Every structure is written in structure tokens, then in C-alpha cells.
Fold this protein.
Amino acid sequence: AASSPAATVGSELPPEPGGSGGPGEEADEERELLLARLVPASRLKEAVGASLASLCLGPFGGAQRLGTLVDCLVLNYRLRQGPGRGRERGAEGPLRCCGCGRFLGEPVTVPCGHTYCRRCLRRELRARCRRCRDWLLPAGGTSTAAAPLRTSVVLNRLAEKWFPGECERARAGSRLEELLTQGRFREALGAVNQALRADSSDLMLRIYRAESYVGLQEYKTAIEDLNFVISKMPNWPEVYFQKGKVLQDSGFVGDALQLFLQCLALDEDFLPAKLEVEKILCDVLSPEKLGESLKESAWNSPHIRNKPFILGSEVTASYCNLQLCPPQSLGGSDVLEPVSGGLNRAQSAHALNSTKDLAKEDGLKRVSSEPLLSGQGKGALLKRKLSFSEQDTVVCEDGRNKHKKQGESTKRDMTLAFGTIPGDLIDVSDFECSLCMRLFFEPVTTPCGHTFCKGCLERCLDHAPQCPLCKESLKEYLASRKYSITELLEELIMKYLSDELFERKRIHAEETAEHSNLTKNVPMFVCTMAYPTVPCPLHVFEPRYRLMIRRSMETGTKQFGMCISDSQNGFADYGCMLQIRNVHFLPDGRSVVDTIGGKRFRVLRRGMKDGYCTADIEYLEDVKVADEELKKLRELHNFVYNQACSWFQNLRNKFRTQILQHFGPMPDREENIQAMPNGPAWCWWLLAVLPVDPRYQLSVLSMMSLKDRLIKIQHILTYFSRDQSK
């Protein structure tokens, strides 16, 4: 005997939490993983069955845990629609919103570096960035007390200069949104109608008018406005969501569900639509609603014979026969096949005070729809089962076809006045950093809306965690260390100021090459003694050294010189290069830098660069010996090495432990003592741990004879060994 999809998938699921199967959290995780495996394969039956079985077997976590099922529905929906249903780019022009694709009114640059109009962000239409899929809302897509949206000063100034009319239109839209938010729908409707008399081609005004009509409960007129917008821009996700909300408020939950899916098929990150689908599915798939739905459908529906499947005796079996069938043409019939609830299309449309024309326009096959506008009716409606038929997979397909002639001119209609910029309005001074007074290079925008070169801003934050212009605190911005390039501004510079950008890049390359030289103008950290092969951890907090470390990392050399201070010359004549192994940045801009000693050097000429010392240097190497001298050198090397081991082993445990924690273990004796230009590593390790004056250590560091260095170390060990014997 064949088993239902629900029974098949349900057998793979873990037992109910609290039973013999283990903790409830692990069971929920396994159910979620199972659903996730079904999405890539587009196995809708099994995904619905898994969700239903989870609801029956144990708590599934409510609407928040149905996201995977929604993804599966959207994927099936998109596959049934076939290719050619791409995202609408919206109006063409240099200042275009990443979200809605329309004019970038009141631009706001988000942390990832992409720019949206204020309207898209204020309405929280997306949880993720449409370009890079970075989170726009806090991780998980739930809104909290978000930071205020600050207009990008530079981009807004460009918009005002290039397209003042569009900016005024955007401000008028903001005023309309305020009226709608405050519930002043009559005032909003009057303002919209007045604006439409001046410009009837503005589709955004029709959306605002539809929202006003919804607030006044004039649903039919709202639907007419939204249908007009769909005919002009059939791939605008927000319009489908708005229309779905109108139908949902009117009691047509099934049709609303299809429109929400159409919205998500065009933009899978459209957050409000996803939340609404999750709520609908959570309510419809709950065991309580499902049982009532099954009983009502079996005894009361006069059209049970027309269902694409037969209701089974089990709850799980009945609901998992829900499927998306191959799409078929809806045809041109005005009155479609009757569906659940005994209503045909014309009858359902009549509930919105519409006639046959509205039935043609909305292009929807009624699914579990009842014209119940009262609260009691809405509650009863949710008890009905949503059944997907073959027409459901092509939501608005016929509506779009009916508007095809109008849609053919969509591109032409939506090429607005901001498509091109007059050449005399492009001024390089509009793209200059207020800190360096040069053309923006890698422009970044702070949360307060000001834009600077990335390097310029970092240097300012080295001194104080606040905006250089408005002095607003940037502590969180500094702690995140996410200085994303403002992509739109960079694109504008590349397009309209290509020659100036080429020159700016050339200057930057020259500066980088200057910082990359390891013999001329080498950056100097004046602090402590450093030795070849010996670790040297540093706590960097001074602004000048923050800049120095950052430049060393950016140029790729990851090296700088270390010297001790000198009262006469500023820093000593000899030092050691340090190689950066790792940098750990602290939230306030300080850093802990893990370095290790490299080559020794002698200072030839001193200098200064942006507050830190520089020097022209030459590197030091030990003079090699041979024959008899090499034999004597090996004997001295072995004797001093054994003496060093004896001294270290006789130290108190406390001191020995501290040395091992800071410097690590003593290096082993080397067979070829002249293999490295700086000699054996253990000599430098021992010199670093011996408690002697830094000036004495510096004299040993500067020696180019291994023999002389071993003799110096021998004298020190002899002195300390006598103290140990006492």
C-alpha cells in the first residue's frame, strides 16, 4: 500500500520532544535540516509534509520557524513562472535606489556601502541588502531600536544640484508618508490627487493614493490604482505586496498569499511579504485549523469533485497532497472555474464592489476566498483550507498579458528626466574630500552621513572617535572597523571624472611605493630593544604609530624598524626590523601587534613622516670565518651554550616560568653556526632575557663578529653565575 508524503517524511523526523527521542531542541534542529534539504530539490510536497508532521509531532516554533518552507514555496513558484521574470531595474539614471530602482530621493548609505532612498529603509522593506545580501536590519531580520537614518550629505548635494525637481518630488513623498503614518488619510488623499493633476505619470503617487484609499476602506479604488502601477511596472515587488495586503485586509487570504509569493519571487529578501506568508502558513498548517478545515471541506463544499486531489482520512495525508501543477493558460473567460467556498472569480470580485473588468485586471484565481470583511468573517476564513491548483502557479499571468500593450512602453515611460547629467553641472570640487582637499579616493560614508577618503577618516579616528565635521560619536563605527566603500559615489567618479581619478590613483600609487621601501624612509618605532628571531609583542595606542602600523599592513611589507630612544639623536644608531605576524584591534582603536625580530640595521639618515620617525638604513650581517678560526669559534660557541643552559636551569621557578611565557623556550643549538646572517638564534634569545642595561644590549646587537658577541655573553653569564652560587 502506498503511503502519503506526510507519512513518508514524518517517519524521518525525530520523536516528539520529551519522549524517547531526545531533547526538543535537537529534534527541532533535525526537522529544520530536513526542510533545508528539500528546498534545493524543489520538493514542495515533502516540504509541506515535513512542516505538517513537525506541527503534529511537537512545537515548531511558530511562524519564525517556517522560513524554510516559504523558501521552498517561492522556489517552486519561480520555477513555474519560467525565465523572463527578472527584477525590474526601475528608472535609468546615475542616482538610482538599490532597493526600488527609482530616483534616489534623500539618499542614505548603509554600512555595506550601498545607497538606498530613505523611503525603502524607513519602511524596512528588506532585511538584506539587494546588492551584497549583507544585513540591513539586525541579524535575523527583526527590527530593533535602529540608528536614525542620516542622509548622505555629498550624494544629497549632488542630487539637489543635478535634479532639483526630482528632489522636491521626493520631499513631497516624505510629507505624504508622514500624513499616512499619522492616520490623516483624507489629507493625504487630497495632497496626492493635487500632485497627480500636476504629474499623472508618477507611479509612486498612485501607491500613496492606494494606501490612502485603504486607510479609508475604499478597497476597490485602491486595487484599481495598484493594477495600473502593475501594468506599467510588472516586476515591481512592492506593488504586489501592497495589493496582497489590500486583499488580506478584505478577507481574501488565499489571493493575498499568491501575491505575497509573487512579490518574493521577484525579490526573495522582501521582508514584509515573507513575514506575512509565514503567518498565513503557520495559521493554516496548525493542527487545530487543519482538522476543522478537513471537516468543513468534506461535508460543506459543493465543488469537492473539482479538487485536484482526494481528501484522505488522515489529517497528514490530506494536507500533503497540496502541490503545484504544471502551468496552463488561464484563457480569456470572464468567469473561471468555481473553487473552495462556492465562489467564482466574478463573484469574489463583486465583494470588492468590482465587476468583470476588475476580474480581468487582477488576474487571480480565487483560492479559499470569501468576501468576509468583518472580524468574525476573517476568523472563519482562516478555518478554510488553502488548495493550490495549476492556475495558482501563474499569479497575475493573465493580468500581465492583458496589459502587454501598455507594458511594451514601460522602459520608455520610466526613462525619467534624471537619465543624463548636463556636462556643465559636473564639477570636480563636488567630489573633494573635506580633509585632504583632493578627489575622493576609496570614499567611505559615516553613520552621520559625511563622506571622506578612507585613509583620511582612519587618520582622524586615530586621534578621536568622532566625525571630523559634526563631531558626532563614531565609537561603534570604529569598533566595527567596517569601512565599506560608498559604491555609488565611486561609480560616479569613475564615469564622469575618469581623468582626474586616473591622476589621483597615480599619486596614491607613488605614495604607497614610498611607504614600501625597506631601505629609504623606513618607519621607526622608538620604544624598546628588539632582536632577530625573538618575539616582540606591542601595545599600540599613539595615533602616529596606529598610522604607521596601518601603512605597513596596507603596503604589504608588514615591517618596520625598532630602536630605543636617544637623548641626542631621537633614536639609537642601531636597531632591528620587526615583522608583523598578527594585529588584534581593540574596540577603541588601539591594537595589540604580534611581531618577531628580523634583520639588524644601522641608521644612515634620520627623518620624519606624518608624526613618526623614519630612517635610511643599511642591514648588518656577521663576518664569516674559516679553517682554524672556525674551529675555535665552534668550541667557544658550545662552551657558552652549555653555560647559558646551566644558568637558565638554576633560575628560580617563578622567573623561569615568566621567561618561558613571554619569550618561549630557548632555541636549540645549531650545527652550522654561520648559516644565518645574524648567527645562532639562541644568542639573541639569551640576550633578550638577561637582565642587563639596554645600552649594553645595544652594543652586542651592533657587533658583526659572532666571536665578539659570544665573549660578551660569556662575561655576563659568568657574572650572574657567581651571584647564583652565593
Observations:
- The first strand starts at residue 107 and ends at 109.
- The two ends are 95 Å apart (CA to CA).
